Predict the 3D structure of the following.
Amino acid sequence: MAVFGTVFMPKMALATFENEQWSKTSVVDAQSIQMHPGAHVLHYSSTCFEGLKAFRHADGSVNIFRMDENIKRMAQSSRLLNLPAIDTQQLSDMIIDIVKQYADEVPAPPGSMYIRPTHIGTEASIGKAAAPSATSMLYVLLSPVGDYFSGGAKPLRLLLAEDGMRCAPHMGMIKSGGNYASALGPILDAKSKVNADQILFCPDGDVQETGAANFVLIDGNEIITKQLDTSFLHGITRSSLLTIAADMGMTVSERELSVSELLERAAKPGTEAALSGTAAVLTPVGTLIQDEQEFSVGTGEAGPTTMKLRQALNEIQWGQAQDKHGWLTKV
Ligand SMILES: *Cc1c(COP(=O)(O)O)cnc(C)c1O
């Protein structure tokens, strides 16, 4: 399988906002878009995106996971970035129609069709550093993907970063390009210096998230993760896993978790930690690194509760378990 995210379906759905209104959706070549080099997004980062997946079931149907939640989050990101308000019904139709068009190309589990809605400010004006773009473009790209973090994947190594942060605190809940650019330098440093896979950002000792996934700690029957605030991304996988954990009778604790409590709990043999996200699903964390010191989480291997939660989520997505919360949209 090609590298995650590098293969695209040849067409995409596209709409533009001009003269205070959205155009009709068109289906266009996904090869290129036309934009003025002075476009707002290229200078002032007026951009947000989403990531969700469509799954093929054994009956041949194609089902999108929690689409409404992703659309809601994109509407929120657009609003917080002062991009034109998206038409949520139009975006829903764009996603469903383009996925339908490529229904035959949706890989069977553990693969899926990754869906990438993108919203960018297109106004040609380099004088608008402190003003919103009056025009924008919304498009939906499709990329078939395999099971990126499949079985053999080694548990991740995370560097705990207590100074600095992933992005400005009021930007954390916006899925916006600049936040990833902001985190890239520290992540590359962590890779080269301590061979970490990711940084776990813990500003002032408060355990938050990594560059593109949420963090959960599992201690016996309890699953612990930071309570929602504006400083980090409100993952839809995170919320789904917490619901599944509660369904399984686990205690769900959404609260502050300090680095010292994390390390204390991680030292116990039964403790597990994992990253959650649409791409990661739930990927085990085996090692935490603080300064030069390394700490195993529990046994340092993928834990049974992590794998059980991951499996339960996959079974709903793949149509192998009842979708009792109504998370799937059949295209
Ligand atoms: C996308 C993302 C997540 C995970 O969100 P999901 O909705 O679960 O895919 C977590 N953190 C960051 C920074 C992200 O960009």
